[in-house]
Structures are given as C-alpha cells and as structure tokens.
Design a protein that fits this description.
267 residues; three-stranded antiparallel sheet; 3 domains; four-stranded mixed sheet; 12 strands; Arc Repressor Mutant, subunit A; alpha+beta
Length: 267
C-alpha cells in the first residue's frame, strides 16, 4: 500500500476488500466495524478520492479497487466507469464517435476522452482518470451496438461498425469526421466489412434528412443497386433546398438534384 497510509485508510481498504465491495456510498460505513462518524466518513472518502485511491462516480458514490495497486494510485477502466454510472442512473449507453473510429480502424488517433451516447446525462465528467464526454440522446437513438469483454471481465458497449459510419456523417460537426467519413464508407463497402443494405437500414433508422441525402449520393456514386437507393429516396420529402456534400466548405460545385446535394469536394 501507499507509504504513509493512515490507520483509518488501511482499515477502510481492508474492510472493502474483505467484503469485495465494488462501490461505497456515503452512509454505508455508518455502523460498520470501522466505527466512524458520518463526518469522518465524508472526509475519509473525499480524501481518498483526491489522492486517487478511489474514484468518485457522482455525489456520494465511489468506486473502490479490488486491491490497492503498488504506489496507491488507482482508476477504473472506461467499461467500469460507464456501467457504474449508468446502473446508478438506470440508463443505457454506447461508446461512439472518435473512440469507435479508433476501435474499427478508421482513425489511428487515440482520443483523450471517451465519447458515449446515453439516455441520461449530458456534458463532460471525470471518473478517476477516465474523462467522459456524455452525449444525451433519446431512447430511439440508442441501438445497433456491439459488446466486448474487457481484460477485467466487464462488458463495454460500442456502436456497431455500420452505425459508427452513419454517425460519422450524422454527427460530423461534433466528431470532426467529414469528409473522412466518405472514405471510410467506401473502404468498408469495398472490403465487404459493411454491406449496403445494412448501411441503408441504419441510415433510415438513425439519420436525419442531411444524412440520408449525403449517404444516398455517396451510395449512388459507388454504384449501389437501385432498390436500396429508392428506399433512401422514399424517406425524403420533396425539396428544392440544397446542402453541401462537405459541410465545412463553401457550397459551390456540381449539383446532384436527385439528392439535393452540392458536390463541393472530391467525390
């Protein structure tokens, strides 16, 4: 254990490890064998969280390590951080955006934050050393996920490969993923890692009008079969408005009137 760990801290970790506690809630230690007051408990948990020995999930709720690592510092992994937070809020989540781009090999950059759609919380939050970017969405926008087991035996939930591609177009301003998303989609289709029908299904379920138009134009360019293009086209209302192929560039270029898209960049 960390050099200089006090008697109360030592007793705390012995108590939590003996009972195999994963979390401690403010008030749990009252009446415990530690024999501390509510004020002592509050100060103890706060002190341990500041020292990086336990991780504050939210007010009054802390994650504790199964054993204190050499040197004393500990932080949960992202799966434990998310599962604990969402269990507490009775919510659902899926890791998305830059983290999913990296997971599927679209982008080699490792994000400093963990992005996740969820149906409870919005904003930035830190749980131990895990920096979270929480994006609150409606229940209907959660789904098409893949689960993976971590080295700690926990389950992490990610947006699926095809869902991640659609989100790269839909949420381009948040993720900074355009125009790279078009290259990713082309590559995944060419390698048969994603099939056109699945991409169309997910686009119709989770995309907005701009997403449908842009992905429709792309799929037409790469020669996807007509019946799939008609499915996308059927979801659009008649409109004379035009949107840019690449949203971050001026709206100048060839016009694809079928999709209402100005091809203002390389296609």
């Amino acid at each position: 254990m960390k050099q200089g760990l006090g008697k109360l801290e030592t007793q705390f970790f012995a108590y939590t490890q003996m009972r195999r506690l994963r979390t401690v809630r403010l008030g749990d230690l009252a009446g415990s064998p530690l024999g501390i007051t509510a004020d002592q408990e509050r100060k103890l948990l706060s002190r341990l969280a500041r020292a990086g020995m336990i991780a504050r999930v939210q007010r009054g709720l802390y994650l504790v390590p199964p054993r204190l690592p050499l040197g004393g510092k500990w932080s949960p992994d992202e799966a434990l951080a998310f599962s604990t937070l969402m269990e507490e809020r009775r919510g659902r989540y899926q890791i998305c955006g830059p983290n999913a781009f990296n997971r599927y090999g679209f982008d080699e950059q490792v994000p400093t934050r963990v992005y996740a759609y969820n149906n409870r919380i919005s904003g930035e939050r830190n749980i131990g050393a895990v920096a979270l970017m929480l994006i609150k969405v409606g229940d209907q926008r959660l789904g098409d996920t893949e689960k993976t087991r971590t080295t700690e035996g926990l389950t992490a939930v990610y947006s699926s490969r095809a869902r991640t591609l659609v989100d790269a177009v839909y949420d381009w301003s948040r993720f900074g993923s355009m125009p790279q998303a078009y290259t990713w989609i082309r590559s995944e289709l060419a390698a048969n890692r994603v099939i056109p029908a699945e991409l169309v299904r997910i686009t119709l379920r989770y995309g907005d009008t701009g997403t449908i138009r842009r992905i429709g134009a792309l799929l037409e360019i790469v020669g996807v079969e007509s019946k799939l293009l008609r499915r996308l086209e059927g979801a659009l209302k008649p409109s004379k408005g035009l949107i840019p192929w690449i949203p971050t560039q001026p709206k100048r270029g060839t016009i694809n009137r079928r999709w209402g898209v100005v091809l203002n960049g390389q296609v």
